[in-house]
Design goal:
This protein is an alpha/beta fold. It is built from 7 helices and 9 strands, in the order βαββαβαβαββββααα. It has a 9-stranded mixed β-sheet with strand order 2-1-3-4-9-8-7-5-6, sandwiched between helices. Strand 3, helix 2 and strand 4 form a beta-alpha-beta unit.
C-alpha cells in the first residue's frame, strides 16, 4: 500500500490519535511538515490518501504553500482518493472545492457537543450516534462546497463536518490526545483568557472534562477513520 501523506502546519498540531490508528492497522504514512519547510509533493500519485491537520493560520492568508495545497486537494478528489481534513485542514478542503472560509459567529475552544445530521450519510458514517462531545479550537468556519453532505453541527458552529465522496472534512478535532490538549492549553492560555465567547472554556475546565470525554470521542474517531480509510485499503488489495 502506498503511504498516506499527512500535512502538518504547526508542530503541536500533529496527527495525534490518527497516527495511533494507522500504526495499529500497519498502514504506512508520511509526515509532510510544512512548518519545518518540507517540500510539497508535486502530484498525488505516490500516495494512497491525503490528510491535512490544523493550524492557527487562515486559509485566506497570503502564504506560499496554500495555493499548491489547494491544487493537491483538487487533484486527489479528482482521482477519487480519500482526503481528510481537521479544522484548518477541513477549511482547506472547503476552499479547494468551491466553498468559502469566514469568521465564525463565536470562537469555540474546549469540549462541546456536536450533533449528527438527519440524513443517510450521517447514518453511514456515525451509525446510531446522534451526538457526542468533541474537542474544538477555531475562530473561523467553512461553508459546504458543491455536492457536500453535512454530517455534524454544534450550537456555536453550523458546519462541523461534511462528506463528499471519499472526502471527509472536520471542523472539530477528533484527533486529540491528552498530550496535545495539554500543549494547546499551554500555548493558547492568553487566547482563552482574552476571549469572552460563551463557547470558550478555561484550561482548567478543559483538563477537568478531558477524562470524561476522551473515551467516547476516540470511539467516534475510530469509526470515522475506518470508513474514510476503507476505499484506500480496498484499492491496495485489488
Amino acid at each position: 500500500m502506498k503511504p498516506i501523506a499527512i500535512f502538518r502546519h504547526v508542530a503541536i498540531e500533529g496527527p495525534g490519535y490518527l497516527a495511533e490508528f494507522l500504526d495499529a492497522k500497519n498502514v504506512p504514512w508520511q509526515l509532510v511538515a510544512i512548518d519545518r519547510g518540507d517540500a510539497l509533493p508535486q502530484d498525488v500519485s505516490a500516495y494512497s490518501a491525503l490528510v491535512f491537520m490544523g493550524g492557527p493560520m487562515s486559509v485566506n492568508d497570503d502564504l506560499p504553500w496554500i495555493d499548491p495545497v489547494l491544487k493537491l486537494i483538487r487533484a486527489a478528489v479528482a482521482a477519487d482518493m480519500p482526503v481528510l481534513g481537521h479544522c484548518l485542514g477541513g477549511q482547506l478542503i472547503s476552499k479547494a472545492l468551491g466553498g468559502v472560509v469566514t469568521r465564525n459567529p463565536h470562537k469555540e475552544i474546549g469540549w462541546g457537543v456536536v450533533e449528527a445530521a438527519d440524513n443517510p450519510a450521517a447514518q453511514q458514517w456515525l451509525g446510531d450516534t446522534r451526538a457526542f462531545t468533541a474537542f474544538h479550537w477555531h475562530g473561523e468556519t467553512f461553508s459546504l462546497p458543491p455536492e457536500a453532505i453535512p454530517l455534524l453541527s454544534s450550537a456555536a458552529c453550523t458546519h462541523q463536518a461534511y462528506v463528499r465522496g471519499n472526502t471527509l472534512a472536520l471542523q472539530c478535532h477528533v484527533e486529540m490526545t491528552a498530550d496535545m490538549v495539554a500543549d494547546w492549553c499551554e500555548v493558547g492560555a492568553e487566547e482563552m483568557a482574552n476571549d469572552s465567547s460563551p463557547y470558550v472554556q478555561s484550561a482548567e475546565q478543559i483538563k477537568s472534562l478531558s477524562a470524561q470525554h476522551f473515551p467516547e470521542m476516540k470511539k467516534i474517531a475510530h469509526r470515522l477513520y475506518t470508513k474514510w480509510l476503507t476505499p484506500a485499503l480496498n484499492s491496495s488489495a485489488s
